[in-house]
Amino acid sequence: MTVLYAIIGLIVLAVVFVQLYLAVVGKENVQVNTSAAWELEEKSAERLVLKKKLVFANEGKQCATIMDAMVRSQLPYEQYDGVEVRGKAELEGAPREDDYFEAVLVQKKGENPDKLDIWAKVALSPRKGMSLEEALSHMVDMAVDFIWQETGRNPWCYKKVRLEITAEEIAKMAGVNLIKD
After folding, report:
1. Is the peptide bond prior to 113 cis by the omega test (within 30 degrees of 0)?
2. Cβ atoms 143, 167 nearer than 8 A
3. Which residues lie closer than 8 Å to 47 by C-beta, 6 or more apart?
4. Opening angle at CA 132, ends 75 and 167, nearest 5
5. Which residue ranges of the chain lie beneath pLDDT 50?
6. Tens digits of per-residue pLDDT, 121-138?
7. In CA terms, which of 22, 56, 103, 122 is 20 to 30 Å from 181?
């Protein structure tokens, strides 16, 4: 019986030491700064492209991986059907022609790079035979979800931040007068 207690005691002691070791080496802790303003990237007769910089900073003690980042418009046609909105996530310095987001590492705090700049981009195109100016002059406020998959020592999970852009901001960047319906 004492042998059984000794074995159980060793197992408990091993578990405690492993937990202490893992607490000391830490985990990843990715924080996202969404304070940057929306910017105009491109304007043509067919579309308007807006972008917003998101800064991902790893404040933790372990490396993190950002994967499957995507931008999803929250502008249903029931709210406003004058524009089609397409979103895209793009790592700064690594533009892609497709909408694929390649996984990228965010090193632990203090190592390079422990910060990443990722752009949330939205392209607005007119619908229903309207010109871009006409479609944007009737625009409404728009929400955009930036969604990404994150992993490290923590199990993988999806995270999301909600980005807002007002109709007034869009109209100003497009150079149109907003018409309140």
Report:
1. yes
2. no
3. 123, 124, 125, 132
4. 45
5. none
6. 999 999 999 999 999 999
7. 122
Write out the two tokens for 180.
């309140």
Q: What is the dihedral of CA 119, 120, 121, 126, to 10 degrees?
A: -170
- Asked if 136 and 179 count as a contact pair (C-beta separation under 8 A), the reply is no
CB 174 within 8 A of CB 48: yes
> Could you tell me the two tokens for 19?
């937990």
Residue showing tokens 């917003």: 52
Residue 92 corresponds to which tokens in the numbers above? 């700064």
Distances (CA, A) of 167 to 4, 74, 172: 71, 14, 9
User: What is the structure's pLDDT at 109?
Assistant: 86
- Beta-carbon contacts of residue 86 (< 8 Å; ≥ 6 apart): 73, 122, 123, 125
Q: Can you spell out the DSSP letters for 148-169?
A: EEEESSSPPEEEEEEEEE-HHH
Supply φ then ψ for residue 20, to 5 degrees: -65, -45
Q: Which alpha helices (DSSP H) does 26-166 contain, by range? A: 132-137
pLDDT for 108 equals: 87
pLDDT at site 21: 65
Residue 124 backbone dihedrals phi, psi, to 5 degrees: -110, 125
Query: How many alpha carbons lie under 13 Å from residue 27 in its C-beta half-sphere?
Result: 14
